[in-house]
Amino acid sequence: MIDGFVMGVMSAVITYAIFRSRDDEAYDEDDLIEEVAAADDDYDVSDYKERSVTMSCQTCRKLKRHREIEPNLYQCVKCKRHTDLRRR
User: Fold this and answer.
1) What residues does each domain of the chain span?
2) Statement: the pTM of the whole predicted model exceeds 0.90
3) What tens digit of pLDDT does each residue of 25-51 get?
4) How far is the C-alpha of 25 from the C-alpha of 18, rounded, in Å?
């Protein structure tokens, strides 16, 4: 019975230490906004052929890679089915 209590306490201490170390290394919101703004400046919106994402393909019935052929229009790499995520 004491062994279970000691294991529970040790698990709680280790978990607390892990989450505590993450909080110490956290960024300020201003730093995150600056990083996102810098990343947005480097991204070329007209280059849709290079963007690829993993989505669930309804034809293959599995998670497959899709490449963007137009803004928010994706094509499955395996079966070539189009997935339209554009607003109407």
Assistant:
1) 1-43, 45-88
2) no
3) 554 555 555 555 555 445 555 555 568
4) 11
